[in-house]
Structures are given as C-alpha cells and as structure tokens.
Amino acid sequence: MTASEFSDLPRFPAGLDLAETLTAAARELHATATPNGTLRAAVKLAVAIMPGAEHAGISVIERGHRRRSLAWTDEVVRSAETESEPPGRPDGASAPGVRAPHPLWEQLWTVPVAMLEDSRVDEAGGVLAGLGLRSALSLRLRADRRRLTVLTAYAGRPRAFDEHAARVGRLFTAHVGLALDSSTVREQLTEAMRTRDLIGQATGILMERMDIDAGGAFESLVKASQRENVKLRDLARRIVDAHGVPGPRGVNER
Predict the structure, then answer these.
(1) Could you please report the per-residue DSSP string of 14-29?
(2) Taking the alpha carbons of 99, 107, 117, 155 in that order, is the dihedral positive or negative?
(3) Residue 53 and residue 31: Cα distance in Å, rounded?
(4) CA–CA separation, 48 and 183 (whole Å)
(5) Strand order in the sheet with 135-143
(6) Residues 6+ away with beta carbon under 8 Å from 1
(7) Total H helices, total E strands in the chain
(8) Residue 7 above 80 pLDDT?
(9) Beta carbons of 169 and 150 less than 8 angstroms apart
C-alpha cells in the first residue's frame, strides 16, 4: 500500500509553503479528541507531509528493546515495528519469531533523528528489506530515561529521504508532540471531572504533604501521571490508599 491508496489521507492545497502546510497539519492534530486519535492522525499526516514517505508508524520503546506499536498506516508498518522478525528473511539469518531490533531506534536515545538509506545494503536492515521497505527515517517524538516514543517514515525505494526530509520531519514531530500533550491533558481533565471527589482527596493530601496550593498540587498530580504513564484516577487512588483515606463510593466500580 502506498500513500495514493489512502482514501482518507489529508490533502493540502497545491502551492502551500512548508509553514502553511505545517499550520494546516497542526489544526488537524489539535482537532483530535483523544491521544489515540492524535497518533492516528499523525501517521497519516506524516505520509502527506514528509518528502519521500509512503508509510509511517509510531511506536514506544522501553529500555531492553521492549516495544509496542501505537499507530500505523498499514500492516507492513505494523510488521516492521513489532517484536518478532517476519518469516522469509532473504539472507536466512534468523528463523520466524526471533526477536530483532529495529535498525534505527536505538540511536534515538542519543540523537533526535536517524536515517536508513537502503535496507538491502545495510546489515541491520534485513527485517525491513524482507518487507519491501528500502528506506526509513526515524524521529524522536518523546523521551525520558526509560521510554522512547518514535515516529518512523518508510519508503519502498532506496535513498528516499534526505536532510530536507529530516528537517521537515523534525518540525512536524514538534507539532505532533504539542498536540499529543494537549490531547493527553484534555483526556486527563475529562477523567478528573468524572472522578473529582477522588482527585480532590489526592490533591488535598499533596497540598498538606508538599505545602503547596490546590493548583500546584493538581499540576503535580498531572505531571506525575504523564511521567509514570498512569491514569490520573489510578494515581489518585494510589495516593488515597497509601494514606488510609476511604475513597468516594462508586469510583472503583467504573
């Protein structure tokens, strides 16, 4: 599947310069209602915006090479970004089901962008070559000491990406990151409203323990939720339970 086969792929009017294109893409990203929606929109927009891109995916990687696909344009991307090596690798070096690292992602712990010119030439590109993906451009989306989120564009021809594509990709991922933060906060605020009694108890505990006001306590709770990748409600429940305070009736029944 290539970009032209996406019936719902975003279309940008001819003649738009890069700034206008990114602004239009940012509007689409910020119009999504949930983080998952933002991720799905991002991979489609990546194909529409990034020069040379035919497919795209977003995955999260943890130290030790554990990884999980979050969004993808098609199944070939999902296959490229899963834990197992696909069957039929041309050089026969590995059997199906053997775990193989992605050829670019390890680099993104230390640099913001990594590029693969030709998977048939690069020894690390065997998995991609077996899927017909000759080129790849990976960009860091989010990172901390334990977890890395990356956006990767792929193409079926070699040397599909250059420095210009990398520059466009970095500008685009900056917009994706902002939109993802925004949709995450919106989702958390909605969840907070639904469970405001429990959140209120946890906020009160933090106010007393950290000697801060309500706004600061809630901000601290939200940041901890994002950092630990835990729902705000679940984090609040932990805090309340740790201090022996009975939670509001019905919260655990959701």
Answers:
(1) TT--HHHHHHHHHHHH
(2) positive
(3) 23
(4) 22
(5) 66-72, 55-62, 147-155, 135-143, 113-116
(6) 55, 73, 74, 76
(7) 8, 5
(8) no
(9) no
Alpha-carbon distance of 102 to 137, in angstroms, equals 12
Domain edges within the chain: 17-182, 195-253
**Residue 252: which of 193, 191, 198, 186 has the closest Cα?**
198
Dump pLDDT digits (tens) for 224-251.
Answer: 988 888 888 889 989 999 987 554 443 3
Half-sphere exposure of 22 (CA within 13 A, CB side): 15
For residue 82, CA distances in Å to 42, 56, 68, 71, 111 come to 19, 14, 7, 12, 22
Same fold, 17-182 and 195-253: no
Tokens of 177: 């990151």
Topology at the third CATH level for domain 195-253:
Arc Repressor Mutant, subunit A (1.10.10)
Q: How confident is the model at residue 175 (pLDDT cuts 50, 70, 90)?
A: very high
Beta carbons of 125 and 166 less than 8 angstroms apart? no
> Topology of domain 17-182, per CATH?
Beta-Lactamase (3.30.450)
- Rounded CA separation 156/149 (Å): 23
pTM metric for this prediction: 0.70
